[in-house]
Amino acid sequence: MSKNEFKDKERYKYILMHKDVEVAEILMTDDGHIININDVYEPQHLPVGTLKNGKCNSILLNTWWAYRAIPTTRKGINEVLQALNIGSTQALSARCLGLSLSEHYWIKPYGANLSWESINFFDNAFSEELGDTLLGFDTGKAQIDLKHIGNIDSLSPDSTSNGNLKKRWKIINGERVLLKAGTFPYQQEPFNEKIASALMKRLGIPHISYDVVWIDELPYSVCPCFTDKNTELVTAYSVLASKNKPNHQNFYQHYINLCNEAGVRDIQTFMDKMIVVDYIIANEDRHTNNFGLLRNADTLEFISAAPVYDSGTSLLYNKPVDIPNRSSIIECKPWYETHDKQLKLVSSLDWFDASKLDGFGEEMANILEPLKEKGYVDEKRVNGLVEFVESRISYIKSLSERKTESCEEAESDVLDLTQEQSCGRK
Ligand SMILES: Nc1ncnc2c1ncn2[C@@H]1O[C@H](COP(=O)(O)OP(=O)(O)OP(=O)(O)O)[C@@H](O)[C@H]1O
Ligand SMILES: [Mg+2]
Fold first, then answer.
1. Residue 313 CA: which ligand 1 atom is closest?
2. Residue 36 to residues 2, 49, 56, 76, 286: CA-CA distances in angstroms?
3. Closest CA to 289 of 36, 130, 63
C-alpha cells in the first residue's frame, strides 16, 4: 500500500484502544486503512507482533487490522458490502469501532467520549442485524450507518469475526455463542467440530465444545466464547511475529520457545495433543491463526494455550471417502505438508490412552446421523469416515505402544512459514 494511493481519501483520527488504555493515535482513511501512526502512547499495549526492531509502523499495524476484518474470500461478502453500501470489510470493522469478542482492541474516534465499560460486547448487547445479513437472512435490513462516530446500537462483533466460513455471534440465554456454517456438498464442517469436541473430551484435551443447530435446513456449529472481559486470544501467528526467528531454529521450535519465554510452560504437551488430534481427524486447516495463547488484557500476562478451536475443515470435508491416494491429497498445516511428517514433532504419547476411545466410531456415526437423515451424506460415507478415523486411532495407538518415535529426524525440515501460508489467507 503506498501513501499516494490514499491521497484523495478522507482521513479520520482515531485512538487505538486496548480496553481503556489509549495505545496510539492513528490516521485512517474512510475505507478503513490505517495510513499513519501519529503517536504511540503505550507501546507495550500494541497488538502482539506489530513491532519490528522495537518500532511499530502503519504497514505492520494495518496488516494486523486487515487480518481482523472479514476476508474478501468469504462467500457472499461482496453482496453484503453492496447491500450495506460499505466499500470494504476493513471499513465495516471501522464502522463497528473494531470491537471484537476475541480480543480487546478497538478504535475510538478522536475526541469521542466512549469507555470500554459502556461499549464492550462481553457486557453489552450487540446488534443482530449484521449477523442476519452475513448469514444471508434479511439482507438489506442491517443499518450500519455509523459513518465517523457511532450509533452504538448498530455495532456488531461480526465485522471482526474473521475466517472463511459464514458466521455470526449471537446472545442465547445470556451467553455469547459463535454460529458457523458448513459448505456444500456435504455440510460436514459443523458435524466435524462436534466430532472433534467428542474426541478431545474423551482424551482430556482442552477444547471448545461445539454442538450443531439447524436453521432453515442447514447445519451450523455453535460454540461458546472462550474469551471474556479480562482474557483475550493472541494467535500463534502474532506470537511468531513478535520476535525474529534465530537462523538455527525452525518455526516450530521458535513457537515453543516464545511460549516458554511468555511463561506458558506446558506448551509442548499441548502441541503434542493438538498435533495428534489433527492427525486423527486429518485436519487440513490448522494455520497459525487457528491456535494460540490466552492472555490477561490488563496485566498482559500470558495464561495458557487457548483451548483447541476451529477443527471443522477435516474428516475429508470436501472429498469423497474412497478417493485413491487419499493421504497425499489431504493438506496439513502449519509445520509440515503431510500429517505423517508433522506427527514426528510429537515429543511424547504418554498421555494417550487408547482405551478412552473405545466405541468412538459408534459415537461418531451417531453424531453424523442427522446429516445422513437430511441426505447430505449417505451410509457408505458415514461408514467410510468411521473406518478412516478408526484406522488413524489404531496407528496412534501402535505408536504409543512402541514409544520409540522421535521428533529429531523430522525437525530439520519444518516448513518455512510464509505470511499467507501461516495465517490462513492464500
Ligand atoms: N469460541 C470462540 N471464542 C472467541 N473467539 C473465537 C471463538 N471461535 C473462533 N474465534 C475467533 O474467530 C476467528 C474465526 O473463527 P474460526 O477460526 O472458527 O472460523 P473459520 O471460518 O473456520 O476460520 P478459517 O478461515 O480458519 O477456516 C478465530 O480465528 C478466532 O480468532
Ligand atoms: Mg479459523
1. 27
2. 11, 17, 10, 31, 33
3. 63
Residues 161, 169 contacting (CB under 8 angstroms)? yes
Contact 235, 289 (CB under 8 A): yes
Any idea where the domains of the chain sit in the sequence? 3-163, 224-423
Pocket of ligand 1 (CB under 6 A): 101-102, 161-165, 167, 178, 180, 208, 223, 225-227, 233, 285, 289-290, 309-310, 313, 424
CA angle 294, 296, 300 (to 5 degrees): 105
pLDDT of residue 5: 65
pLDDT score for 212:
98
* Distance (Å) from CA 161 to ligand 1 centroid: 7
Pocket test for ligand 1, best of 74, 100, 102, 207 (most atoms within 8 A of CB): 102
Cell of 271: 502441541
Cα-trace Rg, the chain: 22
Confidence of residue 417 (pLDDT cuts 50, 70, 90): low
Question: Which architecture characterizes domain 224-423 according to CATH?
Answer: Orthogonal Bundle (1.10)
pTM for this model (two decimals): 0.92
Residues with CB under 5 A from ligand 2 (ion): 163, 290, 310
Burial class (CB in 10 A: 0-12, 13-18, 19+), 289: buried
Q: Give just the sign of the alpha carbon dihedral 354, 355, 360, 361.
A: positive
Residue minimizing CA distance to atom 18 of ligand 1 = 310
For residues 98-105, average pLDDT: 97
- For ligand 1, mutation pick of 105, 223, 309, 423 (most atoms within 8 Å of CB): 309
pLDDT band, residue 3 (cuts 50/70/90): low
Segment 196-228, tens digit of pLDDT: 999 999 999 999 999 999 999 999 999 999 999
Spacing of C-alpha 340 from chain mean position: 24
DSSP letter at 39 equals E
Of these ranges, 99-103, 146-150, 409-413, the one predicted with the greatest mean pLDDT is: 99-103
Reference 274, options 338, 199, 353; nearest CA is 199
Q: Work out which ligand 1 atom sits closest to the CA atom of 178.
A: 1
